[in-house]
């Protein structure tokens, strides 16, 4: 069939290929099988779930062809940014590249924090680096938690005082 109005024909044809059960929707499992990093590893479950939730207008845990087309545009934007920060064109982002990326995005984060992210999200190796899927996940989570922090930091002083439950509420509503 033809692509629905407003949907790129290439996105539509990819949607049909990814929709393995022909339900008219893409699940997290189907999305995971369709997306790969530069090292041919599939995207991780957490990133796929975050992205599905972002484009799932019905809160059904899956996306239709319109959500899928929007998701592809979203991934392409992140991929372009990722390639911009992947200075050595290795297909992954090293510690120094991650530090530069954060700085250029306007985040004032310590080297220790970047090291913590590498330890949490990089594949285990002597020279840990971040693949595209984890880069998208880290950036989405940073953006989301920064937005939550700014809601509480009304004076823009860089500090907030909140209860443990307020903190948990921020995390649960932004991350899960």
From TrEMBL:
The main place the protein resides is: membrane
- Write down the membrane topology: Peripheral membrane protein
Q: Which residues form the EF-hand domain?
A: 6-41, 73-108
Alphabetized, the UniProt keywords read: Calcium, Cytoplasm, Cytoplasmic vesicle, Endoplasmic reticulum, Membrane, Metal-binding, Repeat
Establish whether keyword Calcium is in the entry. Answer: yes
* SMART domains per the UniProt record, alphabetical: EFh
Q: Which residues cross the membrane?
A: none
State where the protein is found. Answer: Cytoplasmic vesicle, COPII-coated vesicle membrane; Endoplasmic reticulum
Q: Name one GO cellular component term.
A: endoplasmic reticulum
One GO molecular-function annotation for this sequence?
calcium-dependent protein binding
A Pfam family annotated for this chain is EF-hand_7
| Biological-process GO terms, alphabetical | COPII vesicle coating
**Can you name this protein?**
Peflin
Instruction: Tell me the lineage of the source organism.
Output: Eukaryota, Metazoa, Chordata, Craniata, Vertebrata
